[in-house]
Write a structure and sequence with these properties.
Blueprint lengths: L4 E5 L5 E6 H7 L3 E9 L5 E6 L10 E2 L2 E3 L7 H13 L6 E11 L5 E12 L11 E7 L1 H10 L6 H22 L1
Length: 179
């Protein structure tokens, strides 16, 4: 099996090297990541529950998919590749923001990522890869927000940091389109 490497970056997303993915998560080294938030045509959120064998954040609910670009791969292509690989959906994605976060996770892992966030809309239902995803659901923002507030332990750390910002982006986009 080929060792997966992540792209190490500085606080401005300039590449500074590569490192094996597991090592980057063990040491908490800043690296490039992608997160995809997919919505149905009614604006409901499509979430995945991470597979139980993941080395961190297993069995937690999170955004539609997330991953890391390969060295020499741009972020949008990485996001689209992983959406197909994890959820079996191929749609046009739009980058909406980036953010840096650091979170200590289970199994002595540390996520320290420069995360590029993409959104997309689809009428297709997921066909999840069972090696990546144990479950999925479609949920309204109001129901989702209630669940996160009542049971934050059921969601990934990065999801809790970003989901309200993604919702704000969607809300502002809808107002702009209507005007």
């Amino acid at each position: 099996m080929k060792e997966i490497k992540v792209i190490l970056v500085d606080e401005h997303d300039n590449e500074v090297g590569t490192m094996p993915k597991l090592e980057a998560h063990q040491k908490g080294i800043l690296h490039r990541a992608v997160s995809v938030f997919l919505f149905d045509l009614d604006g409901n959120w499509i979430l995945q529950k991470r597979a139980e064998h993941k080395y961190h954040s297993a069995n937690l609910w999170t955004n539609t998919c997330c991953s890391h670009p390969y060295p020499e791969e741009n972020t949008k292509k990485a996001a689209q590749r992983r959406l197909i690989e994890e959820m079996g959906i191929d749609v046009q994605l739009t980058k909406v923001m980036s953010f840096v976060y650091r979170a200590e996770l289970d199994n002595n892992m540390i996520e320290h990522e420069f995360d590029h966030v993409f959104i997309g809309f689809s009428s297709d239902l997921p066909k999840p890869n069972k090696n990546e995803v144990s479950n999925w659901k479609i949920i309204s923002f109001e129901q989702l927000d209630d669940e996160v507030q009542e049971h934050p332990e059921k969601f990934t750390e990065w999801f809790k940091l970003i989901y309200k910002k993604v919702n704000l982006h969607l809300t502002l986009s809808k107002k702009y389109i209507k005007n």
